[in-house]
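Thread: sanity check for a docking pose with zinc ion

Original post by kr_44:
Hi all, I'm comparing my docking run against an independent structure prediction. Below are the sequence and the ligand SMILES. Could someone generate the full complex and paste the structure tokens? I mainly care about where the ligand ends up relative to the chain.
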Amino acid sequence: MFNISESDIIEQDETWGGFENEGQPQVRIVRNQADPTMIVDGVDGISVTCESTNRFYVEYWGYLAGGLWVTRDGVGELKQNLLDDQDDIPGWSLSTDLDELPDWFPAPENPPSPVTCTECGSEVSGTKIVTPYSGELQDRYCPECWVSVRDDF
Ligand SMILES: [Zn+2]
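Reply from moderator J.T.:
Ran it for you. Here is the predicted complex with zinc ion included:
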């Protein structure tokens, strides 16, 4: 799951039946769906909760949902696999209510840089840009411009 090494997966949560650790400090990683015309299956979001120094609960939801326990190294692999990619429009982004990342969650190496809207030229976060599929050109819209052009798609 999420390309975490077998040796860093402690166990699968076979009895998962819904959100387990709501209300506890957790780091969330959410899928960045930049193309609204594309239907994505798989996982939309992941949360990581610390249970002890080397035991973390990873919960995921979307088309697929469930949970598993991983080691601290497993948390590092999860971060590396999902958040360290170099694309200017990231596939996943951090989403957390915490003021700062807890010390058990490693900071992403390449925080996404702003992306320029092809319509108005403003710079917006790579997690807010909209890139609808339109043949060969891939236009990039900020949320405001997207609202005004979306009916053309
Ligand atoms: Zn714009």
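The chain has two helices and eight strands. Hope that helps with the comparison, let us know if your pose agrees.
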